[in-house]
Design goal:
heterodimer; A: FAD/NAD(P)-binding domain; seven-stranded mixed sheet; six-stranded antiparallel sheet; B: 138 residues; mainly alpha; oxidoreductase activity, acting on CH-OH group of donors (chain A); FAD-bd (chain A); FAD/NAD-bd_sf (chain A); flavoprotein (chain A); GMC family oxidoreductase (chain A)
Chain lengths: 536, 138
């Protein structure tokens, strides 16, 4: 039997970056807010990065791939027809638990690809509309960076960037020699203590959770403030359906607790913040007589246009000590030299590149796994392990263009631990993206060569990255061509909003969390401004 | 899943394999002579993600090795087992203080940035070429 809970003003599904920003903003405005999260609170003590065996744990229990990790809070993904295995993490803070906290805004051009490059669609909003929200989120989280990057309109940060260190300085000199753009890394890792965030101690293990509590994952960066403001967060709550009333408005959500009991949480406004896969899955699960193809899916676009940002990597090993063990990772620097479309390259759009340290010994040795056995083990290993601490990694985050064939659907067989159909990911890297991957990889090799790398390893594709899950409920002005409007409101369901990366019309080539958080803040403030439409 | 626990006999087998994969070299010790290597192997087993049953079987299936050529044949015949055991052995070895010291690896990994660290880098003028040439501007 389903237990019906007391009505609230706002129900948020998902406690990751977008859900936390929305919860904080709406609770601060005096609205009653409940957020349902399938995972639990994490503690910095849980994370492996400050344990001697952390590199082994990162391959197993702390693997970024939910299918490998198999925690109860994760749901499985069918990736049998996908070139990439998307990563995510079910917990308060969501996938920001594992993010590298690379924190960049989209560029103005990203909002107008149709106008500028004649491809895809323009966003219904501009960079200028989102800019104030970017700035406010940056200040709230204590984002560390350096203003004045000529690749962007003016922006600034309250917290100075992290030092480049030996490796960063070496690469900066090489980039200057090449005449290519670079800029000190901007990241949601405050350089010094900020609110409840500790000072970064540069362990370089950001991507398996920060054991120091210094990274602004949203369980730390936003949720404590949201709870103080009055938002109620329910963990271990797996939503299986958004329900609608006779008028076709969202009524609430049915969720399952850890004991298998069902609850109905009613609300006057429902916000989906379950990421670009989870939100599409939930809309597809929420079929009714009024919405036989899934909730808010009159356009038929729910789940389509999935964009995942393929990543390619060049690892350089140096004879000199580049202090590759020193974090954060994080990005020592980024380059937007090859970000925009250049017709001479033969493909549209480009990539953001980031230089990262390689802290672990095992991760450096793995670069030699393709050597003949006798050159990898025995006495030979003593010639290889000297590169520990001598490694730097350039990775390129490739702009992924939207294609309807790349999509999320409900798997007919695979189920999560509550028996709810799991998502199936159909995703193929396009010819355009492959051209971009190969071009960017060659450029990153040139960067390492210019910096004097002794060995350079090319990894054409990271198959288990990234966690950028975008585009599956895109925003737009035309209800036939989009799922939500310019405020994130579902065209067909006036009290249903979406605040995660699924709203993105195009992906840009930067890590998307800054944009997702800014969008969530803007949508939440719009809800506050228009709340009389829902609450009276 | 319960963390696996290695018996003395299993530890011996792994150390025999470890000495072939990681003999003494330079200032680094041979695998079996690393201080506390038994404890480090237990830690590595616990972090390996393998169940007790699969680990026991993988170790009990190990043949006797006398040299690297023999291990190579084993790795080619049973690559999954070799991958698991070599990962544990490598993991244990590079947790050891003596080994990390020999690599000039910092044992105290906490190294918060100093207040002026970035400013000192910036004051060298390293960013001037980027700004002077307006690099990256659309």
């Amino acid at each position: 039997m389903t237990k019906t809970l007391e009505d609230v003003d706002v129900l948020i599904i998902g406690a990751g970056p977008s859900g936390s920003v929305a919860a904080h903003t709406l609770a601060m405005a005096g609205m009653s807010v409940v957020c349902l999260e399938q995972g639990d609170w994490m503690s910095p003590n849980d994370y492996p990065g400050n344990r001697p065996e952390y590199e082994l744990l990162q391959q197993t229990q702390w693997n970024p791939n939910p299918n490998t990790r198999q925690r109860p809070a994760d749901y499985p993904l069918n990736v049998s027809e996908s070139d990439l295995s998307p990563i995510m993490f079910g917990a308060v803070g969501g996938s920001s638990i594992l993010f590298g906290a690379h924190w960049l805004r989209l560029k103005p051009s990203d909002f107008r690809l149709r106008t500028q490059d004649g491809i895809c669609d323009d966003w219904p909003i501009s960079y200028e509309e989102l800019e104030p929200f970017y700035s406010r989120i940056d200040a709230f989280l204590g984002v560390a960076g350096l203003g004045g990057d000529p690749a962007y309109p003016p922006q600034d940060y309250e917290m100075p960037p992290h030092p480049l260190g030996k490796g960063g300085v070496r690469m900066a000199q090489a980039m200057n020699g090449l005449g290519w753009h670079w800029w000190p890394g901007t990241q949601a890792i405050p350089t010094f203590k900020h609110k409840n965030l500790a000072q970064c101690v540069r362990w370089g293990v950001c991507e398996s959770g920060c054991p120091a509590g210094a990274k602004a994952s949203f369980d730390l960066g936003y949720w404590p403030h949201a709870v103080v403001a009055g938002a109620r967060l329910v963990t271990g709550a797996r939503v299986r359906e958004v329900t609608v009333n006779a008028k076709g408005n969202a009524e609430g959500a049915i969720w399952i607790d850890r004991n298998g009991a069902e609850h109905l949480q009613k609300a006057r406004i429902v916000i989906l913040a379950a990421n670009g896969i989870g939100t599409a899955r939930l809309l597809q699960l929420s079929k009714s007589a009024a919405f036989p193809d899934g909730l808010a899916n009159g356009s038929g676009l729910v789940g389509k246009n999935l964009m995942l940002h393929p990543n390619t990597e060049a690892v350089g090993l140096y004879d000199d000590d580049v202090e590759g063990w020193r974090g954060p990772a994080g990005q020592l620097m980024y380059s937007l030299q090859f970000y925009e479309t250049d017709a001479a390259r033969g493909f549209y759009r480009g990539a953001k590149m980031n230089l990262m340290p390689r802290p672990g010994v095992l991760s450096v040795l793995r670069e030699f796994d393709d050597l003949p056995f006798e050159e990898r083990w025995g006495q030979a290993i003593h010639h290889l392990d000297r590169y520990a601490g001598h490694a730097l990694s350039w990775a390129a985050n490739i702009e992924d263009l939207p294609e309807e064939s790349n999509c999320i659907s409900l798997d007919p067989d695979l189920k999560d631990s509550d028996g709810i159909p799991a998502p199936k990911v159909n995703y193929r890297i396009s010819e355009n993206s492959w051209k971009s991957i190969d071009y960017m990889l060659d450029r990153m090799v040139e960067m390492h060569q210019a910096a004097g790398a002794k060995h350079i390893f090319r990894h054409r594709l990271w198959t288990e990255q990234p966690g950028h899950l975008l585009g599956t409920a895109r925003c737009g002005n035309d209800p036939r061509q989009s799922v939500v409007d310019r405020w994130g409101r579902a065209h067909e369901v006036p009290n249903l909003f979406i605040v995660d990366g699924s709203v993105m019309v195009t992906s840009g080539a930067v890590n998307p969390t800054a944009t997702i958080a800014a969008w969530a803040l803007r949508t939440a403030e719009h809800i506050i401004e228009t709340k009389r439409d829902f609450i009276g | 899943m319960m963390k696996p626990n290695l018996t003395d006999a299993e530890l011996s087998r792994l150390k025999q394999l470890g000495d072939i994969l990681m003999p003494a070299g330079g200032s680094k010790p041979a695998f079996s002579t690393v201080p506390e290597i038994d404890r480090l192997l237990q830690v590595a087993a616990g972090a390996s993600g393998a169940s007790q049953e699969s680990l026991t079987k993988s170790i009990s299936d190990l043949p006797d090795f006398s040299d690297l050529a023999g291990v190579k044949i084993y790795a080619e015949c049973v690559p999954a087992n070799f991958a698991l055991l070599s990962r544990m052995i490598s993991g244990a070895y590079y947790m050891a203080r003596d080994v990390l010291l020999a690599l000039n690896y910092p044992l105290e990994r906490r190294n918060p940035a100093g207040v002026s660290d970035f400013a000192d880098e910036y004051m060298t003028g390293i960013l001037d070429p980027v700004m002077e040439n307006n690099r990256g501007a659309p």
